[in-house]
Amino acid sequence: MTSKLFIKKIAVIGNGGWGTTLAILLHKKGYEVTLWGANSSYVEYLKEKKENIKFLKGIPIPSGICITSDISNNLRDTQLVVSATPTPYLRSVLVKFKDIFAHEVPIVSVTKGIENETLMTPSEIIANVLGKHPTSLLLGPSHAEEVARGLPTTIVASSKDSNLARVVQGVFTTDRFRVYTNPDMTGVELGAAMKNVIAIAAGICDGLKFGDNSKAALISRGLVEISRLGIAMGAQRSTFSGLTGLGDLITTCISPYGRNRRVGEQIGKGKKLQEILEEMEQIAEGVWTTKSVVALSRKFNVEMPITNEIYAVLFTNKNPLEAVSNLMMRAPKSEMEELI
Fold it and tell me: Which of 49, 131, 164, 324 would be a feasible disulfide site paired with 159, CB 3.0-4.6 Å?
């Protein structure tokens, strides 16, 4: 297994806010970092300005980071790859790198989502496109804006290979960026993806000017839905009480940085989804993840009323107040019912 001592060159695939933040973090730790972006004109802009104005405004990019849109031979000796491309674009981007990285090179996925067409998670897409690579996840409550400013953050490295998880833990850990390990890749990846759906619901609550009682109930019952589906798909129950379950859910439901919460808030204020998305620079993963989660809930026969109502609001133009009424007027149940 690759050791931290032998990792020197790292490529970050995706120059959004999170990819840029991790490139900066790794550069500060002394690694040789290449930050790759698909848009050549924006890459040239980044090289000139040394600041990711669109996605990470106010944070300078160190001159020692190589910023490129080229896929050339100088990437072939990369010793660790960070996959930071949003799920809707992930497959088409990875195809470009199909013959670039040696199969023993570990890939760390930091993407949160589920592909609509295949219902694959990002790590599954990586394996499907690039073939057999040692793979780890690096996920959790981690807004790029806060990590880039050096605010204390704690996340999870997850891999079926415990040695790789520890390597990733060592590569990324700093005095302000603490990394735990968790072997439950299924739970870690599903929790990190599905929380974005609940975040849209939280934003709708904010847009409708509901209070703290509503938000607390939503987060609690949202976690039940996430856990139900995750367990049905083979995840460990305890994972959903951790950083990529409850932790990530709280962050994305309350934070002003959250793109998914912001989408919901605008819907709650009366805006249409298409209008909101056209005004956004970044991808709101939860919108597309909602489609995948509804499909998975049907496939695994799991009850997910909040997710179903969010789907109806997003894609069938259902009135948000009607969706809330439907949830509130469901048949009474015991809170202590089994998750599955």
Answer: 164
Residue 96 known to be catalytic: no
Are 35 and 65 in contact by the 8 Å Cβ rule? The answer is yes
Contacts 24+ apart (CB under 8 A), 304-312: 304/225, 304/228, 304/229, 305/225, 305/330, 306/197, 306/198, 306/201, 306/218, 306/221, 306/222, 306/225, 307/194, 307/197, 307/198, 307/225, 309/201, 310/197, 310/200, 310/201, 310/204
The CATH T-level fold of domain 4-183 is Rossmann fold (3.40.50)
Task: Please state the domain extents for the chain.
Answer: 4-183, 186-328
The pLDDT confidence band at residue 281, using thresholds 50, 70 and 90, is confident
| pLDDT band for position 338 (cuts 50, 70, 90) | low
Which residue is catalytic, options 50, 195, 209, 291? 195
Per mean pLDDT, which range of 81-85, 105-109, 170-174, 331-335 is the poorest? Answer: 331-335
pLDDT tens, position by position, 207-216: 999 999 999 9
